[in-house]
Amino acid sequence: MKKIAFLIWSILLVSCSSKKSLTEKKDFVIAFGSCNRVDLPNLLWDDILNTDPDVWIWGGDNIYADTDDMKALRAMYDQQKNEPGYRKLAQTTDVLGTWDDHDYGLNDGGVEFKAKAASQQEFLNFMNVPESSELRKRKGVYNSKNYVIDGHEVRIILLDTRYFRTPLTPDTETDKRIKPNEYGVGTILGDAQWNWLEKELQNSTADFNIIVSSIQYLSQEHGFEAWGNFPHEVDRLAKLIDDTKPKGVVVLSGDRHISEFSKINLEGIDYPLIDFTSSGLTHAYREFSGEPNKYRVGEVVYTESFGILEFDFKAKTVDFKIVGDNGNVLGQLEQVYE
Question: Which residue of 15, 26, 163, 276 pairs with 310 in a disulfide if CB–CB is 3.0 to 4.6 A?
């Protein structure tokens, strides 16, 4: 019988006493978030700092520019860089990230965006990537980085779901915005990035492999952007994970202005694949009244929040937390990885 990893989850709406759990330093801590406007109050940077993260990951929509004017784009990135709370975090924490449509420059944009090459350079400037880096020559912002902690390894794999993504199919039959393409039509990642991702997973010796996707991988019934709009790409990633069998794969996603946990059991791995969505940092879908997600674990959080992953290498656990203003833990899931 296939071994099912032990899973517990709880969704908590708690008082500030939950801050105590955020002060207990774990072996390695990742904090991440998405959907951040420079023209709205940035209220969460002090709370993010209080989690003492080893890495901060931008999950996309890091600014809301929606422009092909690189001067305007650069000005917004500079404004975010100079936000006092974020500046303090960036001075003490390693920063990684990918983009989504609004910082890419075109709402729901993909391969057709004519300013994407120039926008990529501005994104890399924001991420403080050296001019001599090979990332400056690559088409797309996909990248990876390994962290080794006392003999344990965490690999963070950052995908680009914009640069190569082919057209979406508008839904003209229901009140949803988008419907899935016909099976086999189109791509999210493109050939070069798929080949790269295969090698990343195939060659990984990491204890945990964290895949960052700006859009949700598992939740796909809502009619907005998601991997589910390219169902063959969903299957391709699942098959790739099945075939390569990397340890501890987790997907981090954003975009939706809600936060939630989703999970699925894949045939080839002995732990559930979790898609942890964290969105948004400065504005949330406060009018949220429900939507289907057959993979959801727990409840949807629809206030401003960020996500953290706390790793305990000895216990082989990851504690996933949705955290709001004043350090309140709004949702929590713990997973054991055998």
Answer: 26
